[in-house]
Amino acid sequence: MTPDVDTEREGLRERKKRLTRHALRMAALTLVAERGLDAVTAEDVAAAADVSPRTFFNYFASKEEALVGNDPALVAFLREDLVARPPDEEPLEALRAVFLDYADGFRFDREMWSLRLLVIDRNPSLLPALMGATAELERVLAEAVAERVGSPPADPYPALVVAAATAAVRTATRHWGAVDAGPGLVEVITDVFDALARGLTPP
To answer: Which tens digits make up the pLDDT trace of 140-170?
Structure first.
């Protein structure tokens, strides 16, 4: 998950950083889609984005992170939004609201998501990095859920409900990014959370 923050929520410096991060991601995805993962270096990505290699490494630790890593701003946004939800709200409903805020308040580039899916499908060696990014996001959100419900450390519930929610969002974004037109991301995320709420019974 890699959003473009609504410009109304950010200052000039933050907007410049967001645009640079997005340019680097797009350059990495485009080059890897064209050449393959092993034929692209971090220096290639920096040159394609018209920045220095040093700038690249200010944003990403590796080309794999540029391709599938989390945006730190996204992780912080989701955690802060979750913590701010009403305390009596059920965790799954709170997570649903947070991810809908994310989809509604951020501008998504369908072309980028389609390219990302293509790159991942063609380069399965990226899966460990993708799984690591997902695990880190889920860990942060599970800690927030545990705080909300007062779960003891050994309780698997926070991790379980977060895993279900993030799986739903991954399904929604993959479905949304795989087609050139169709429902918006907010609508698709709403549909998948409705399915979770029904207990995954057939529609």
So the answer is: 999 999 999 888 888 999 999 999 999 999 8
Domain containing residue 14: 4-197
Structure confidence by residue, pLDDT tens digits, 67-119 = 999 888 888 889 999 999 998 999 999 999 999 988 876 555 667 777 888 89
Q: Please give the model's pTM, rounded to 2 decimal places.
A: 0.80
Examine residue 74 and state whether it is found in any structural domain, yes or no: yes
SS3 4: strand
Number of structural domains found in the chain: 1
Residue 104 lies in a domain: yes
Which H or E run contains 106? Answer: strand 106-107
By CB atoms closer than 10 A (0-12, 13-18, 19+), residue 150 is exposed
Residue 203 forms part of a structural domain:
no
